[in-house]
Structure formats: structure tokens, C-alpha cells
Amino acid sequence: MSTPKTPDPGMLVISVLSADWGAFWPQVGAELADRFGPFDPSEEFDFDQTDYYDKELGTPITRRLLAFDALRPLDELADIKLWTNSVEQRFARDGRRLFNLDPGFLTQQSLVLATGKNFSHRIYLKDGIWADLTLIWQKKRWVDFPWTFPDYAGEAMKSRLTKLRQSYRNRQSKPRT
Q: Superkingdom, according to UniProt (predicted)?
């Protein structure tokens, strides 16, 4: 028989996509910090693996990864996604989002993203939100799946996530106050 145990908290990572950062940043950055605490933003980098968001967000789209300092319980993922959806909607203009916020949790074992879209490999959490197992850490590297989004399957993203994973490991080893 397995004995239920609360898992270690995860590192909240939010991917932000936009073609018009001046229209909402740093205000949204401040809201994210107010809600989830301090974060380290990556540099902006190209998001060109798909044109899925071009019509809604415009072009060229760039991405920032935000890695939050405070580790959080994994069961908060659905609530975080619902809140980020509300922020996207609040800043939308003429029915179009200015940015896309994709939250997820990075742990030593995996990267799990939240989504409002069901698919065969996704696990339902609550309130219309599913968990998407995007990458797993195996044999000292990130391993993707046939369903992993192309931008997350690329080496540039995996390299960034490897650095974040090390930061996560360092935070885990520090005593919690």
C-alpha cells in the first residue's frame, strides 16, 4: 500500500509571450510580483517555432521566462492558471490578448504546464484546467514527448530550464524560514 505524502513544492515558472511589451509591462510584472513574490525574468528571446499566436498577439512575438523565488505547493497550479487567465482578459483590447501567460511548475523530475485545453495525455485538475506533462528529467537531461510543444522541445528552452532546475535544487537545499 502506498502512503500519501505531500510532495516537495515546485518552482513557479511563467512563460510570457507578446509582440507589444510596452503595452502592459512592467505593470503586469508588478502584479505578478504582488501575487507570487519576487521573480527572475529571463531576457526576451524569439518565439518563432509556430505561428499559432500571430493573429491574436501580432508579430514578432518574443518570450520571457519568469522564475519565482518562493517555492509553492504543486496543488496551486489550477488556481494560478485561472488567475493568469483573468489578467490576460483584463488587459485585452478589442477581444484580443496583448500577451499570453503560461504558468507551470518545475521540479527535479519534470516541467508541468497548466492549460485550459483537454487532450489525451492531460490530467484534469479542476475548474476547466488540466495539467500537461511537458518535459521530464531523465539521465541528466530534459526528455520531451510527441505532444511537447516545439518551443519547449528545443535545445534553447531546455538549456534555460536546466539552469532553472539547478536554481530550484539550490533553493530546496536551503533551510525554509
A: Bacteria
